[in-house]
Amino acid sequence: MRAHHLIWLVCGVCCSAAGRSRVSLSPAAPVRPGIEVLLSDSAHLIAGKRLGLLTNNTGIDHLGRRDVDLLRRTRDARLTVLFSPEHGFLGREDRMGLPDSRDSVTGLPIYSLYGGSRTTAYGALDSTDVVLIDLQDIGARYYTYPATLAQLMRAAAHARKRVIVLDRPDPLGGDAVQGNVRAHAGDPDSAFVGFLPIAMRHGMTLGELAGMTNDVLGIGADLVVVPVAGWSRSMFYDQTNIPWVKPSPNMPDLESAFHYPGTCLFEGTNVSVGRGTGTAFQVIGAPWLDPDSVLARLDSAAVVGVALQATAFTPIAPTDGKYGGVILHGLRLRVTDRTHYDATKLAIALLAAIRAAHPSQFQFRNDSFDRLAAGHELRQQIEAGRRPSEISQEWERDLARFREFRGKYLIY
Questions:
Q1: What is the reported pTM?
Q2: Looking at residues 283-294, what average pLDDT do you find?
Q3: Strand, helix or coil at 32?
Q4: If you write DSSP's letter for every residue of 334-368 in order, what string do you get?
Q5: Nearest CA-CA partner of 260 in 193, 187, 328
Q6: 107 closest CA partner among 75, 135, 79, 131
Q7: Which string of DSSP letters, residue by residue, matches 372-407?
Q8: Of 104 and 329, more confident
Q9: Judging by DSSP bridges, how do beta strands 130-134 and 50-55 pair with one another?
Q10: Could you tell me if residue 160 is left (phi over 0), alpha (psi between -120 and 50 degrees) or otherwise beta?
Q11: Phi-psi bin for 24: left (phi > 0), alpha (psi -120 to 50), beta?
Q12: What pLDDT, on the 0 to 100 scale, is given for residue 100?
């Protein structure tokens, strides 16, 4: 059943059966990202085509070679234009309004979908026959790459261009789903941070999210997903042979990625998540925070598969503007059991404990927090003094529905 489902999806989640193309898989390296599968097994999909490519520094093969350079070497296809998401083509920017630019190696134009002219960028689709998308997602609802994918898919569908997603592993694995579930899909333009009806930790690859996006938003794109070869849902990123490349400036390693589905919620508060340090999303802190007082109030039921330790850190030029150059007192989080750790449960327990320990200093930034939490309910529950275990228990029914819903979009 799963094998049949795989063929259906990678053959294209299309608006018509005529638009489907079969992608074959043959054994090679233990794990091969979609770009390698495309060029070695399924080059017919781009033969004779002019190509546009949405990517950044994460668009590499298992040897670290750029998609751009690999595609430029193909004889039967021509790369004509590049597109970039948040953080830019090189993945180094953490600011609004990124301009269009040019690739210094190939001279190809790069149209920024995070600050450049959308009209100009979409107009560049006229110079393409096929749009390729290769971005490393992080496995959490808040990440913006799926929204950029949705925006370009919509433009490509309007321009009647095929979209081929070159898939990559979910760094956190594909089994666990955690946190609350957004009730309804939103518009990726206005709900840029988490527009899909998915859980905080969704356990899906970008290719799987593309299929869901095409369906839920009714985009009707001629969509093909080229899968990762050799990856299974039980595998974490460091069990692949693909090198870790920071998908954004404040995502230094896999440890940060495991905490991100929970600690990202602190972005909507006056507590630092360690931006401006080498341990972003692995630490939380503030000048006024008393780690011992917080730990004394922490619901121990949420401390599973993780160790917490008092720490101090100093953000240097943090892009969130929180406490630059100030020594902060806080907690360091370290995963001890990946299988049982739930960063979302720990996060709400920490939020409740910090608010209880520092009622006059701790603050929610309501609009920001509510965007991340997919509504005001979670914030109001914490403000009302609800026990974290009660809050997370209420998520279970929605998580069960989400597991069932996402099933028809799973490839692996």
A1: 0.91
A2: 98
A3: strand
A4: EES-TTT--HHHHHHHHHHHHHHH-TTT--B-HHH
A5: 193
A6: 79
A7: HTTSSHHHHHHHTT--HHHHHHTTHHHHHHHHHHHG
A8: 329
A9: parallel
A10: left
A11: beta
A12: 83
